[in-house]
Amino acid sequence: MRVGVIGGGLMGSGIAEVCARSGVDVTLVEVDEARVEQTRAKIDKSLDRAASSGRLEADDRVAAGERLAYSTRLEDVEGADAAIEAVIENEQAKRELFLELDKILPDAEFLASNTSSVPIMKLAAGTSKPERVLGMHFFNPVPVLPLVELVRSIMTSEQVLGQARRFAEETLGKTSIDSQDRAGFVVNALLVPYILSAVRMYESGFAAKEDIDRGMVKGCAHPMGPLALADLIGLDTLLAVSESLYDEFRDPSSVAPALLNRMVEAGLMGRKSGRGFYEYSS
Asked: Are residues 174 and 237 in the same domain?
């Protein structure tokens, strides 16, 4: 099987790596050569780390690297059996990309989006086969976390949903859950209001960020506190999901605190920018 992965950021690189490690040939498309080299280096580093820790055999590490092809041309995914989109969390950019993928891949089994906030029907609406468009929402870090949310629009066919489920579970070895095409899907609809509440608590001076995070780790057995998790997700992504949740449900708990808006405006995106609620070394 061959899959096109569009976008090599935090999520796209992880999706491409997991596919390659699972025996899938991957064509990963980035915006320019500089980003291609950054993405290649990031995936190589992750594969090397898995090999050195014993989680990946040396021969499998080499084979995974050989299954990865990199390009700056979307046309190079032509002939792929499926495509997974992981570009910037911007509805217009994603809609335009799906229109292009619809033309380039007329016979693909499915066209999937890794979006965490954009309704799938909006991405499918302009395509010639909306029944083959669905959401496949992976979780960061993709090589580690086992979950994939499968999101069907009102037009997604049972056949396509089944093909995507087999790909996620049998090919990639992931666990899948189903979600309706609603903002936030299952996980983020529950998670994001919780994180926003922690941001408000910190913003108001109710408690220090370290105490908020330590309280949830030590008191509730969470693997990571909400503010550290926000940094891992990316504050820009958190903001985009919160806006999508509020647009759909008008729930005050989904309104982004002013602090989150100011941090995103300042370029403090979390781990990926080196600073968010906490600072990170390069």
From this structure: no
pLDDT digits (tens, 9 = 90+) for 37-60: 999 999 999 999 999 999 999 999
Beta bridge partners of 5: 28, 84
Q: Known catalytic residues?
A: 116, 137, 149, 188
Domain-terminating residue out of 180, 202, 236:
180
Q: Looking at the DSSP assignment, which residues form a beta bridge with residue 71?
A: 29
107-152 residue pLDDT tens: 999 999 999 889 999 999 999 999 999 999 999 899 999 999 999 9
End-to-end Cα distance, the chain: 36
Q: Say if residue 130 is exposed, middle or buried (CB neighbours under 10 Å; 0-12, 13-18, 19+).
A: buried
Which 8-state DSSP code applies to residue 106? T
**Could you tell me the pTM of the whole model?**
0.91
Helices 226-233 and 209-220 pack at an angle, to 10 degrees, of 100
How many other CB atoms are found less than 10 A from the CB of residue 132? 24
For residue 6, list its beta bridge partners.
29, 85
Q: What domain range includes position 202? A: 189-272
Exposed e or buried b per residue across 133-156, where buried means at least 16 C-beta atoms within 10 angstroms of its C-beta: bbbbbbbbebbeeeebbbbbbebb
